[in-house]
Design goal:
By secondary structure, the chain is of the alpha+beta class. 57% of the residues lie in helices and 15% in strands. The chain is built from four helices and six strands; from the N terminus they run H-E-E-E-E-H-E-E-H-H.
């Protein structure tokens, strides 16, 4: 019973870390990636649709992304969605494709990306702490219902804290590595 609780707690905390890593992909680092467009959606016949669902997205070089829509009538909608998304580049529509030219990142932009990353890391830590609280509440309920003893409850809460500490250290390590990566010119 307690082992199931520990496994559930650990899997939720792992999911929080994975969510943080997915969020990191939307940040711009020195080299441009197609993931900066992950949150850009267009109105495709009444449905909000990701750009990767309506065309091909290619990285031409370290500062250029090319979007080739499968339907040419979508060029205006894609151009408009990218402009509204404010991803750091203005779309250039040549009638067949859209090119995004990203300028080289300045030190201030790198620091801003690192700041955004730290905020995402803090959100992950809060989620991990919430998972700890939920697991501890379940343990306390088991103790209250006399399904486990006071000693088992204390031991279980200590174990949950160790799991929490492990994931907080993991988040801090990832943040330190990514921050050094972003700030490196």
């Amino acid at each position: 019973m307690l082992n199931e609780l520990f496994n559930e707690c650990e899997s939720k905390m792992k999911a929080s870390v994975n969510h943080m890593l997915r969020d990191f992909k939307t940040l711009r680092t020195g080299k441009v990636t197609t993931s900066v467009l992950d949150n850009v959606k267009i109105d495709y016949y009444g449905t909000l649709t990701g750009l990767d669902q309506v065309g091909s997205i290619l990285v031409a070089d370290a500062t250029t992304i090319i979007i080739n829509p499968w339907e040419k009538n979508l060029l205006q909608a894609i151009e408009s969605a990218i402009s509204k998304a404010n991803i750091g580049a203005n779309p250039n529509n040549d009638g067949n494709q859209i090119k995004l030219f990203f300028p080289a990142m300045t030190v201030e932009q790198r620091q801003e990306s690192a700041k955004q990353m730290r905020i995402m890391g803090e959100h992950a830590k809060v989620a991990i702490r919430n998972d700890r609280k939920n697991a501890n509440d379940k343990v306390k309920k088991l103790e209250k219902d006399k399904e486990i003893t006071v000693d088992e409850s204390k031991s279980a809460q200590d174990n949950i804290q160790k799991i929490t500490d492990k994931f907080i250290v993991e988040v801090d390590g990832i943040l330190k590595t990514k921050e050094a990566e972003i700030l490196k010119v």
